[in-house]
C-alpha cells in the first residue's frame, strides 16, 4: 500500500512538473524560432507581421500582413504560432499556424507559408480547415455560392474552383456534416 502511495505521489508531482513546464514553454514562445501571438487584431500592420519583421523577416513582412489581414476578415478572435528560421530569416521560408473563430462559424485551423523570391517579392500559400454541421452540398451552396464544381481528387474529396489559384476541397465527415479545406497560392 505504501508503494502505491509513493507511486501516486510521484505521478502527481511529475504531472505538476509537466504542467508547469508546458505553461513555462507557452510563456517562452515569444522569442526563438516559434513565436506565440495571441488576440490578433487587424489594422495598419497586424501583430503577426510586426513579430515577423522584428525577427528579421523583411521581404515577406508585407505579404504576411496582407494574408493575415485577409484571413482575419470577419474573425472575432485569433491566435497564431509563427515559425521563423533561426538563421537568415529574411531569405528563408516562414510558416504560420493559426486558430480563428467567428460569431457565426465554427473555429478554423489556418496554415500559411511565406517564401521570399527575388523575382516576385514573396510568394505565399494558405489553407483553412473547417468543420461544418451541414452536408457538403449545403456548405457549397451557401458558403461557396458561385464556385465551380471541378471533380474529385480521388473518390471521397470533391473540388470547388473559387479562383485561378484557389480551390476548396470538401470531405464528408458524416451524412450531415462536412470538412472543408480552402487552399490558395499567391504569387
Structural overview:
The chain is α+β, with helices and mostly antiparallel strands and 187 residues long. It folds into 3 domains: 1-29; 31-128; 133-187, no CATH class. Helix content is 28%, strand content 39%. It has helices at 2-27, 47-54, 61-71, 136-142; strands at 34-37, 77-83, 94-101, 108-117, 121-132, 148-152, 157-163, 166-174, 177-186. Strands 1-2-3-4-5-9-8-7-6 form a 9-stranded antiparallel β-sheet, with helices on one face. α2 (47-54) runs antiparallel to α3 (61-71). The radius of gyration is 21 Å and the shape is globular. Mean pLDDT is 84; it is low at 1-28.
Key phrases:
single chain; 187 residues; alpha+beta; 3 domains; disordered N terminus
Flag low-confidence runs.
Answer: 1-28
Instruction: Note the main sheet.
Output: 9 strands, antiparallel
Q: Pairing-aware structural class of the strands and helices? A: alpha+beta
Shape: globular
The rounded Rg comes to 21 Å
Distance between the termini: 66 Å
Count structural domains: 3
Tally the helices: 4
How would you spell out the order of helices and strands?
HEHHEEEEHEEEE
Number of extended strands: 9
Task: Please state roughly what percent of the residues sit in beta strands, choosing from under 5%, 5-15%, 15-25%, 25-35%, 35-45% or over 45%.
Answer: 35-45%
Strand order of the largest sheet: 1-2-3-4-5-9-8-7-6
The helicity comes to 25-40%
Mean pLDDT: 84
Amino acid at each position: 500500500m505504501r508503494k502505491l502511495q509513493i507511486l501516486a505521489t510521484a505521478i502527481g508531482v511529475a504531472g505538476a512538473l509537466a504542467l508547469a513546464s508546458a505553461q513555462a514553454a507557452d510563456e517562452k514562445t515569444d522569442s526563438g524560432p516559434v513565436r506565440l501571438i495571441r488576440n490578433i487584431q487587424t489594422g495598419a500592420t497586424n501583430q503577426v507581421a510586426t513579430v515577423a519583421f522584428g525577427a528579421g523577416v523583411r521581404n515577406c513582412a508585407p505579404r504576411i500582413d496582407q494574408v493575415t489581414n485577409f484571413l482575419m476578415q470577419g474573425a472575432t478572435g485569433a491566435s497564431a504560432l509563427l515559425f521563423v528560421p533561426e538563421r537568415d530569416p529574411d531569405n528563408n521560408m516562414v510558416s504560420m499556424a493559426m486558430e480563428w473563430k467567428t460569431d457565426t462559424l465554427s473555429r478554423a485551423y489556418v496554415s500559411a507559408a511565406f517564401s521570399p523570391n527575388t523575382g516576385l517579392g514573396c510568394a505565399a500559400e494558405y489553407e483553412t480547415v473547417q468543420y461544418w454541421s451541414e452536408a457538403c452540398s449545403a456548405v457549397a451552396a451557401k458558403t461557396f455560392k458561385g464556385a465551380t464544381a471541378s471533380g474529385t481528387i480521388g473518390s471521397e474529396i470533391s473540388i470547388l474552383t473559387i479562383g485561378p489559384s484557389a480551390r476548396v476541397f470538401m470531405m464528408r465527415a458524416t451524412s450531415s456534416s462536412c470538412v472543408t479545406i480552402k487552399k490558395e497560392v499567391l504569387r
